[in-house]
User: What shape does this take?
Amino acid sequence: MQKFTTVTGIAVPLRRSNVDTDQIIPAVYLKRVTKTGFEDALFAAWRQDPDFVLNKPAYRGARVLVAGADFGTGSSREHAVWALRDYGFDVVLSPRFGDIFRGNSGKQGLLAGEISEADAETLWAVLESDPGLELTVDLVDRTVRVGDLTVSFEIDDYTRWRLLEGLDDIGLTLRDEARITEFESTREAWLPRTLPALSSPELSPQGR
Amino acid sequence: MSNAAITGERPRTLAEKVWDKHLVARGEDGTPDLIYIDLHLVHEVTSPQAFDGLRVAGRPLRRPDLTIATEDHNTPTLHIDRPISDVTSRTQIETLRRNCAEFGVRLHSLGDIEQGIVHVVGPQLGLTQPGITVVCGDSHTSTHGAFGAMAFGIGTSEVEHVMATQTLPLKPFKTMAITVDGALRPGVSAKDIILAVIAKIGTGGGQGYVLEFRGSAIRSLSMEGRMTICNMSIEAGARAGMIAPDATTYDYLEGRAHAPRGQDWVDAVAYWETLATDDGAVFDAEVVLDADALEPFVTWGTNPGQGVSLSDTVPDPSAISDANERAAAERALEYMDLAAGTPMKQIRVDTVFLGSCTNSRVEDLRAAAEIIKGHSVADGVRMLVVPGSARVRIEAEAEGLDKIFTDFGAEWRFAGCSMCLGMNPDQLAPGERCASTSNRNFEGRQGKGGRTHLVSPLVAAATAIRGTLSSPWDLAADLAAGATSNTTANGEK
Ligand code: SF4
Assistant: This one.
């Protein structure tokens, strides 16, 4: 995972609350077998509408989403985060997130920052007045800056640290790789191994 | 004497011993422990994104020699030599095959003797052993706890994590002792124990816990029966279910393809003998059940906790004091199209499904075959018999069980998850009612609009004969009444 310090990019005002993961990515896209390539699936139903905010040319290449409260509630599908990442978003700001969504975000390098309802309104107003405006999200001092305006966001210390260090769960564990290797050297020889593949004759002991 | 008494250590439970033994790093300041995983089971549904994640990050799969894959959820149980017709299913299977080849994972594909439901395959190969940690991207991984292993289901991110590191960051689980003493009456089996346990503690009762099943009734169960019990621990909300290993466990394992041999076997057994919960170990919670009093059990609703004795009636929601539970019961009865007060035994079924990782091992098939032998299936009822693995199928055929089933009028299928979940061609039609030996009676689980009653293999067999939810006790009663079973059940025959 890439280290995350600041992101400067186009921000999209999504004036909706209770955006559940079914809206972020409808169930039909869950049949896929890859972890990437979900950019077309993001908000698939809403994007049918030409007036939907993401369809406006000014927001092309956006990296920050400013949404209403209770973003990412509902089904635990990790695909919701993958779809946002694949589309190009590095940051979602919302007054409140679904718990599982917030957890999944941290694992995939998507910053889910909590802002106040008032700041959400302010940001929407600013972004709507000048579509395509860029803002800067600074994880070091937990602020969002656009022009003269600075608002702060919240994120828990552990997730922030992991994002700053660019550590996904696996990267974090692999920092302990020496300990894993050491542990492996103490494992008993008789513990099961799947390779080389063995198979009993036609009938197992119980069947005889 | 217990180990703790000898060494003077703090007495520990079985679960704690296995946990401690697999501690790579103890978490500090609220961070989780890092636990080593001895065996990773893989199937086609929850693995593709995990493999893809490895690929994207350029990481290898750390221990292919502790990983094994099989095809089960999507596979058809008929015409297994033909290409799979459903495109999504075919893609998932083909993706698994490609991924296993790329990452060096052993795979048992459709047509292979070791192919089958992932939770049947691990034990049958002797890979599932006492005291190990087992994970799989499937909630019913709890099955393997029957051997005294710590076995639990994980999500796709965790699957990728195990593939890359052979470890998982985990917070310790709480422990719950479920003691079942006494002797089961004939006609009552392991499935009835676990259904009764879930009805007692509820589908959330085990949340955050590892359940340890103990007591004389558990000790006297075969490995197959123990697997049935641990399999459904998850339906009580538990992370895992465990049973301490004993002579029954060792007898089952000895001689299996991947079981230790020679001196290794001696060393392994010596370790396994230390696993049982120490005298004086403290559980976070305890539940007691009396096996003597148990009757064949059956569910009436749409979660596995909504069950009653077969001799009982469909409960009346208005008698339930908890408002949420009452509403759930009302919804369940509507979905199940059942009226409160109806005797369970009057409920007719269209389909009987004998299979799934809960009850598809050869012992389950034997038990059902013994009951149906010499009978024929009730009018208007179809019965599907689906062995848990290709090997189980061959074993059953060697004993002539397939003949008993087909003579009875049942369909004898190839191995897979089949009608346990609506992911392959074996599904209920809307409104169809099924007595099923599987583990979930959720709305639509066996097919959209399908209605499921969870039962034991013995109840499934008796139900197939009589056409209404029945147990072997009813067959005996029919016999005593001097009637042939079919005329009693159907009247019109
Ligand atoms: S048989 Fe059913 S419960 Fe078991 S692994 Fe297959 S789908 Fe899951």
Notes: Residues B 72-73, 117, 119, 138, 140, 356-357, 417, 420-421, 438-439 surround iron/sulfur cluster (CB under 6 Å).
